[in-house]
Amino acid sequence: MRKVIQQLKQYKRDTLSCIGLTALEVIMEILMPFITAIIIDQGVEAGNLPVVYRYGVLMVLMAFLALLFGALAGKNAASAATGLSANLREAIYANIQTFSFSNIDKFSVPGLVTRMTTDITNVQNAFMMIIRVAVRAPLNLIFSFALCLIISPPLSGMFLIAVVFLVAVIGTIMAVTLKIFKQVFRRYDDLNASVQENVTAIRVVKAFVREDYENVKFSKASQMLYKLSVKAEGLLAFNAPAMMVSVYFCIISVSWLGAHFIVGGSMTTGDLTSLFSYIMSLLMSLMMLSMVVVMISMSMASIRRIGEVLNEKADLTDPEDAVTEVADGSIDFNHVNFSYKHGSGKNSLSDIDLHIRSGETVGIIGGTGAGKSSLVNLICRLYDVDEGSVCVGGVDVRRYDTEVLRNQVSVVLQKNTLFSGTILENLRWGNPNATEEECVEACQAACADEFIERMPDGYQTRIERGGSNVSGGQKQRLCIARALLKKPKVLILDDSTSAVDTATDASIRAAFAKKIPGTTKIIIAQRVSSVESADRILVLDDGRIDAFDTHENLLENNAIYQDIYHSQLEGSGDFDQPA
Predict the structure, then answer these.
(1) Rg from Cα positions in the chain
(2) I need a surface site. Which of 5, 83, 115, 447 has the fewest CB within 10 A?
(3) Which residues of 133-170 are buried (b: 16+ CB within 10 A; e: fewer)?
(4) Beta bridge partners of 338
(5) Does pTM top 0.70 for this prediction?
(6) Mean pLDDT by 10-residue block, N- to C-terminus, for the chain (579 residues)?
């Protein structure tokens, strides 16, 4: 809760103004029945028209002030609530940007989306209701009850009975529904996950004619959310009957007792009229409070979920005396152990002792799940090791300023992502200050210039969301060009040429040798032809180093490499090469 309230920042003034104006609005409204009693007793029944006119004008003025205060309070409430939600979204988004991959692994993508949409909307609505209704209702209740005590202490006891009854009913409902709403928001995550997965993989769904299966899966998630929501709303529906019981109890008891007091001469007609007004005001305040309770019970689950993201601290932090320069592209793994879940005992990498010279070209090959991507993720510190150390330029990566390290260790990941915008804008993700000539040069090195020049607008051609209007191979080459623009000391290609033909793959490697000879190049590939020209090739097996040598030596001495080589080049060949 504290973390959420801290996001008010510049909207604290609007919040306090709303509370103050609401209090003034309540005072104006509460005094009106009191003035009405004076008009009836001292004006109408006494036949004194000046009193009626004088207090009538006062009532009109008070009504106008109440309207003005209410309008201003509403304006400030809207400003504060929407401002809070905007700040919360910005704070969550900014905190997510600091997360390491291990932090992101704790939250599903649909879960983060739900927190930034549904949960924040719930908090916004609840906050607006709190600073308006939750301020107005208690003040109304307190003032109404105080004036009821002034008019008739015995009749005021009826309100206390109604209040105790309502608090008991509402408290019970809130305790139960809070638990249900926790489950509701988890089901929202499941629903969003189903939608995201289906939309992202819609081509696969249609290719395998699995629309009916996906519909059934979505219906199950939707039905479960429906059942929980109905259960929660069904319990909340008891608020209204409980409120009506209290209203009728108060009206009947006050009418019956008030009539006796008037006949006995201990109460005037004006007092009873104002008393009825205060009864309705008091009970309406209770009804509004019950609505606030409902909204708060819904928002508490959202507040906890938002707080989880805001309180999450990045696993990877920069040291105080961070190193701000990478000397060269040498890489050293010193007996490294790594697991995605620390302490699980299931290592993705075990006892990796590896030393790569600056400017060297290293190929990495191995079966699925061998740990190839895990290995290179440690070089740019997307994760931290469990044991041992990873050094770049002779310095442990944990001692570097993270931004400096990642600017010098450029990675083209397995999942290539392009963003909405022109080709030039996408390329400048690698270097915002790159000139168009530098972008063209990088594209030439990545063999991307040939297809860009065929496009109608060249480098100004717009890339659609997710790069849907370019092929997989074109997307890979643009991502390689983007990485080259950083002019890194280490370049990592994580299976980043899998969608290009062998000839283009060879051209890219030849361009690397010519244009970035001093850059350390690490190439992860499934094809032997992509790594055989490397200075040395690392063979990984089940998270361990099986061999690290030249192509010729591995072909002569390493069984795993021999199997891969013979299956690809002596069997059916690469996908685009004849056997």
Answers:
(1) 35
(2) 5
(3) bbbbbebbbebbbebbeebbeebbebbeebbeebeebb
(4) 349
(5) no
(6) 80 90 86 80 79 87 91 92 91 86 76 84 86 81 79 76 79 76 74 76 80 84 84 78 78 79 74 76 74 74 85 84 91 92 78 93 88 90 90 93 90 80 89 90 89 88 81 86 89 81 82 85 87 91 92 90 81 46
